[in-house]
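Q: I'm writing a short methods note and want an example of a predicted protein-small molecule complex. Could you take the sequence and the SMILES for flavin-adenine dinucleotide and return the bound structure as tokens? Please keep the output block clean; save any remarks for afterwards.
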Amino acid sequence: MATALLNLLDELQQIVGERGVLSDANELRVYECDGFPVAKGLPSAVVFPTNTDQVAACVKTIARHNMPIIPRGSGTGLAGGCVAFGEGVLISTSRMTKIEKIDLKNRLAVVQAGVRNLALTDAIAAAGGGGLHFSPDPSSQRASTIGGNAATNAGGINTLKHGVTTNHILGVEVVMPDGSIVQSRATGLYDGIGPDLPGLLCGSEGTLGIITRLWCRLVPKPKHFRTIYAVFDSTYNCCKTVADVIASGIVPTSMEVMDGAMIRVVEDAFHYGFPLDAQALLLLEIDGVDQVLEEQLAAVTDICRLNKAMDIKQCSDPKRRMELWSARKRAFGAIGRISHSYCTQDACVPRSKLPEAQERINQIGAKHGLKITNVFHAGDGNVHPILLFDEEKPEEVQRVLQASQELLEYCISIGGALTGEHGVGVEKLHLMPKMFNPATLDTFLKIKKTFDPEQRVNDGKLIPSDKLYIELLKPIAPNTPGGAS
Ligand SMILES: Cc1cc2nc3c(=O)[nH]c(=O)nc-3n(C[C@H](O)[C@H](O)[C@H](O)COP(=O)(O)OP(=O)(O)OC[C@H]3O[C@@H](n4cnc5c(N)ncnc54)[C@H](O)[C@@H]3O)c2cc1C
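A: Understood, no commentary inside the block.
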């Protein structure tokens, strides 16, 4: 190991202790990727601070050694955002797990950035605030951190009605790339003074600094629900139902779709009782005032029938309802049963175009010789085609990247967005110019450079950089699926 790196490790150990720094090549393998297995890179080291002052001291030290810095939460991201490409030190928040305050009266929680999403909900319940919760609920909520949720502006199953992470963050504390500590709106009250720093930091994917503490809004849990699932003989009809419900003016809490292959994977893993011959399944929940829910339920049921639902089941037993949502949330985890590796794509399309988009996405998969299965937050217009492949086969990896590019470009071309919730990371960086004009991209880069003039923190992710470009995609070879033949 080079002397300069040894010196850096030594200085970092003085800040966080010997057990707070990893540099052994085998141990570093754990940190070579996130949930996007296509983009891999070994960091030079991983450091585990336990508080903001340690983060600030680590940042200053790493900067003095002129090394890149990459913030990392739990590594559940799906766009390669927390991976080091070339040399760089990962600053992990996984030991910053203190819930500092739960203030039920003022509906506020203050947490360190490494607190897991579900851990906060559990702690609120334990503090006697069972009626309140932190609403953002990404399906990764058992593992992903609130800092990571804010950095990616995570969505989830109930964000259709209740909003994404940025709508629930009142304030942030951030260690800037020069090691200074900035706090915004940290009083717990929405004061609206000055630029909206939490808004800017939410969704910045670790490119502007390291979030160390968050002031989280707590909101009442909905008390009354109606939950149904409807099965269809085609994803087209299922997605048409979603589009029609949105067009009707009803805003459900959630509208989640699984295609036939996904239904069978989930059923095989969790034995909920889904029909194995269905080609698509819609999970739909509405919440609100009990008296109006019956009327809304009748309206959505009618829409399901008009779109030829084969069966519609109401799920009124609370235990069965929990099982239903648990099966949905664990769907991604079950894919390992059918594929060695998978790449979860993520884009957004106008809801009215969901039915045709879903068909086109599957055609693109077939063109590139890839199996695609789908499970997605359809109500938000999110699409999550999951491309199945074997990461040991480089040619297959390239086909995954080609197919991903084609389907993302298609979604943008029909008025959609490059990402629905997983972010841009390194994965979609090359497609940012398809989404934004040069003046907009230039503005993003100017914001980045205002926070981070040396472009040290997570450069080459989210915002096209004038310093660093990480190339994942190679030119398509002739005579391969998707290539010229
Ligand atoms: C099974 C599964 C289901 C998922 N479901 C959803 C879903 O429903 N909705 C959704 O939106 N996403 C989902 N995701 C994606 C992922 O869980 C989210 O993006 C999550 O918010 C990432 O949190 P993390 O702590 O794992 O962050 P990481 O993966 O560690 O990092 C993600 C990005 O945030 C940055 N970052 C992390 N922590 C900080 C910090 N403290 N300060 C500054 N930057 C930071 C990193 O640099 C990186 O760019 C899912 C992923 C999996 C594997």
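A: Remarks, as requested: The first strand starts at residue 21 and ends at 22. Residues 57 and 179 are 7 Å apart (CA to CA).
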